[in-house]
Design goal:
Radius of gyration: 24 Å
Number of strands: 0
Number of helices: 6
Order of helices and strands: HHHHHH
Largest sheet: none
Mean pLDDT: 90
Shape: elongated
Oligomer: single chain
């Protein structure tokens, strides 16, 4: 199974491109071959291909790239270049200890009690 962006993300990217460029963007991919759901086979193929090529890109990077779109509708290589220029360093997950010393001591006692029950 190949890695790709979540379906909702790629749909949002294409919707944003269509909103900015109208048919100039969508016509780059249309084949005129309608799928059973009525969508164009070329557009769906393009969405799948773009999604695979952008796999692992953060939402923040995509958002920043979509805020800096060029005047003309980008091809995939052009959009990938824009993503590289728009890269946002992921922020590390930080777990904060918001427990008081008293709460920590209570939790430690409870854990010790549970361990004692398991050993008994």
């Amino acid at each position: 199974m190949s890695r790709k962006l979540p379906d909702g993300w790629i749909q949002r990217i294409f919707a944003t491109m269509q909103g900015n460029y109208g048919s100039r963007f969508m016509n780059q991919w249309k084949t005129g071959q309608a799928l059973p759901d009525g969508s164009d086979a070329g557009v769906i193929n393009a969405m799948n291909h773009w999604s695979e090529k952008m796999a692992g890109t953060s939402a923040e990077t995509i958002k920043r790239a979509l805020e800096q779109l060029p005047e003309e509708p980008p091809t995939l290589p052009q959009f990938l270049s824009l993503l590289r220029r728009s890269y946002v360093e992921p922020s590390p997950l930080r777990l904060e200890n918001k427990l008081t010393a008293e709460q920590m001591a209570k939790n430690k006692r409870r854990i010790a009690e549970l361990i004692a029950k398991v050993r008994a």
